[in-house]
Design a protein that fits this description.
Length: 476
């Protein structure tokens, strides 16, 4: 890209425009690096979900193209980027806490630049607060214009001012920008952006905008490229993958998309998240049943087991229809592992409602469940509902739920003991370097003796012992 003519004005079309700015930033950076006598470094921190993590890979891709080198220790980096999350209040508080510390560090490193992006930046009151009390931040942008990162960096390098660029929403999807994968052998792939469900507690539709699906051809092309680059497992990402394709010019179901992806030679495993129970079709269940590549794992957030609460949450299913769905899936794919998300303490939740949630947990027997304490998000319908539940009651229910979930999951996890399963090796074990760590199709971790050269390979492992949430095994 260095041969790009930078004396001309930036092209208007994307992604050409961003490649122009990448080349321009590269020149600025080269000069800075020469003055300093060392390359400039960056550190990106992801605060949110897998979609947020995927966005961070795109940021890293741009930074590395520009010539920045990764630095693991944030305090030493010349460019610190926080990719923020605002789904619960505590995610938010962590960002402010860390920013306070960064202010001190920036005083000692005059080269330091700080950029904030992600979901939190889509909230006007957050940006107001940053403008007022966090003047040392250099660049602020949102979720819809993340592809403009290179352009924003150049804008900042050419001025001394704080650069703020936030869009309310977008109907655009920009393809073919650089991205740098965290793992060589597996990758997240966005299949859609945004969410139209407006669950009454959730801020995501407000900060991620309306639902947009990527063109199936672009998705398949991206995965083919990844596979030729060594990727064997993809995770298809969307807030509600089951409604994929509804807004395309030529509508297509998620099940059909999966069948297209299945055909890609060299791809071994397909995962996806998240599935909204209201949109999970029989067609999808059949495709999962017949597939050789779709992993035996389904994340199916229930949120609550009480039909009354589910209605107030605007989830559009009942306890009974959820349980029927689970039965249907377990019948079609008997060895499937089910996981879920549960919120405790939604406004108006009574002890009876909570017991309905406990009942669902006992009936479904999840492999694991993410349990959350309800967090009030301003601007959402639930934030102004009456009967917000006192903290002590929520905490007490949360602890009971967590215990139940953990007891069940250690039992469920152990059922594969004594079987041989395919494992995708992901890393050398953190604590014991004679072991490697990999994942079963159902997403459970296994540690077994092996060397680093197994990373990225799928091998057969005998599961000797279950240790609650993971296995110890041996290769056969
Ligand atoms: N699109 C996904 C979820 C994205 S957010 C889905 O519909 O399942 C991930 C999880 O965060 C949600 O499943 C929910 O359990 C939790 N969550 C969202 N908003 C929350 C809030 N206000 N308080 C507590 N938990 C929340
Ligand atoms: Fe939030 Fe509901 Fe959309 Fe999931 S489906 S992102 S919980 S609004
Ligand atoms: Fe958080 Fe945004 Fe994901 S709010 S959970 S990072 S979509």
């Amino acid at each position: 890209m260095t041969e790009m003519n930078l004396t001309k004005e930036a092209p208007l079309e994307e992604p050409a425009r961003q490649y122009y700015y990448i080349a321009k930033a590269e020149e600025y950076l080269k000069r800075q690096a020469e003055e300093l006598g060392r390359p400039l470094t960056f550190c990106v921190t992801t605060f949110g979900c897998q979609m947020n993590a995927r966005d961070s890979e795109k940021l890293v891709g741009v930074l590395e193209k520009i010539g920045y080198v990764e630095e693991a220790e944030e305090e030493k980096a010349d460019f610190v980027i926080y990719n923020t999350c605002t789904v619960r209040e505590n995610a938010n508080m962590r960002v402010y806490g860390r920013l306070g510390q960064l202010k001190r560090v920036k005083k000692t490193n005059p080269h330091m630049m700080i950029a904030l992006c992600g979901c939190m930046m889509q909230e006007p009151q957050v940006v107001e607060k940053l403008k007022k009390s966090y003047r040392f931040v250099d660049i602020i942008f949102g979720t819809h214009n993340i592809y403009k990162f290179a352009e924003l960096i150049v804008t900042r390098l050419e001025s001394e001012r704080m650069v703020i660029d936030i869009w309310k929403d977008t109907d655009k999807i920009v393809e073919d920008l650089p991205s740098e994968r965290k793992f060589s052998f597996k990758s997240g792939v966005n299949i859609m952006f945004g969410c139209n469900n407006f669950c009454s507690y959730c801020i995501v539709p407000y900060v991620r905008g309306r639902e947009r699906s990527r063109n199936p051809k672009d998705i398949v092309r991206e995965i083919e490229g990844l596979v030729s680059d060594g990727v064997v497992e993809v995770m298809l990402l969307g807030q509600n993958v089951n409604s994929y394709g509804k807004t395309l010019d030529e509508p297509m179901t998620f099940a059909r998309l999966l069948q297209e992806i299945e055909k890609i030679e060299g791809l071994e495993r397909i995962r996806f998240m998240t599935s909204h129970p209201k949109d999970l079709s029989d067609e999808l269940i059949q495709v999962m049943k017949n597939s050789k590549k779709i992993c035996k794992h389904l994340h199916l957030p229930v949120q609550s087991g009480s039909t009354r609460i589910l209605e107030k949450m605007n989830r559009r299913y009942t306890k009974e229809t959820y349980l029927e769905l689970v039965d249907k899936i377990k019948t079609a794919v008997p060895d499937i592992s089910l996981t879920t998300d549960i919120i405790v303490g939604f406004p108006g939740e009574t002890e009876e409602d909570f017991l309905e949630t406990m009942d669902v947990v006992k009936k479904v027997r999840y492999d694991s469940a993410f349990t959350f304490i309800y967090s009030k998000r301003s601007g959402t319908p639930a934030a102004v509902m009456e009967e917000q539940i006192p903290e002590e009651i929520v905490k007490e229910r949360f602890d009971r739920l967590l215990k139940e979930v953990q007891d069940i999951s250690s039992e469920v996890c152990a059922v594969h003991t004594g079987t041989t399963q395919e494992v995708l090796v992901e890393s050398v074990n953190d604590h014991d370097s004679s072991l490697v760590t990999g994942r079963l199709s159902n997403n459970i971790l296994v540690h077994f003796p092996g060397e680093a050269d197994l990373i990225g390979k799928i091998v057969d492992v005998f599961l000797e012992e279950c240790k609650g949430f993971y296995y110890i095994g041996r290769r056969i």
